[in-house]
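Postdoc handover notes: sequence design on the structure in folder B. Input tokens:
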């Protein structure tokens, strides 16, 4: 890329580090640290704008409500060639306050799922293909083991935290604690 084009982009964007601009079938990545740009291929053409789902505290109301997002992610557009609506996907590791190994007593299956945990109780379990269930009673210990019953009477066993520990920090809280340490 010529120096004048690079400087034009840098000036236009205010030299935001790590900023990626989608251009046609590729990405233009400006890296302020090394003062260079590079073009990388994208798997498929960008056909619509994707939105970023930001960190937010959810509303845990039993009727309606909204999810807690602990780590931002790019929402995927729906693929019309599938029966699933990918725009509803909730990637594991981004929702609630922790990621657990969760066992459905009814189905006999065990899943890695995000959950909302507060005061020794699991309040909500999030599903990767969208949606959640609220628990009406539950208990969980500091190692992530416990059990609960959801609003539809289904029983769930909790078999430990994914990664072995509970990390209650959201992305914003992590950024704040890093700044405080400096």
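Designed sequence:
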């Amino acid at each position: 890329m010529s120096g004048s084009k690079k400087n034009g982009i840098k000036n236009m964007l205010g030299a935001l580090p790590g900023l990626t601009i989608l251009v046609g079938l590729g990405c233009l990545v400006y890296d302020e640290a090394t003062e260079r740009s590079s073009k990388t291929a994208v798997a498929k053409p960008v056909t619509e704008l994707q939105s970023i789902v930001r960190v937010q505290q959810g509303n845990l109301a039993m009727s309606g409500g909204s999810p807690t997002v602990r780590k931002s992610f790019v929402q995927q557009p729906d693929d019309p060639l599938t029966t699933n609506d990918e725009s509803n996907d909730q990637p594991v590791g981004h929702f609630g306050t922790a990621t657990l190994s969760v066992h459905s007593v009814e189905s006999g299956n065990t899943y890695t799922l995000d959950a909302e945990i507060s005061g020794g109780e699991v309040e909500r379990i999030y599903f990767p293909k969208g949606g959640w269930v609220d628990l009406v009673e539950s208990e969980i210990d500091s190692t992530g083991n416990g059990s609960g019953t959801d609003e539809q009477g289904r029983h769930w066993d909790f078999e430990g935290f994914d990664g072995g520990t509970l990390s209650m920090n959201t992305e914003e809280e992590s950024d704040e604690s890093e700044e405080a340490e400096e």
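Context for whoever picks this up: Residues 4-47, 168-182 have pLDDT under 50 and may be disordered. Don't rerun without checking with the PI first.
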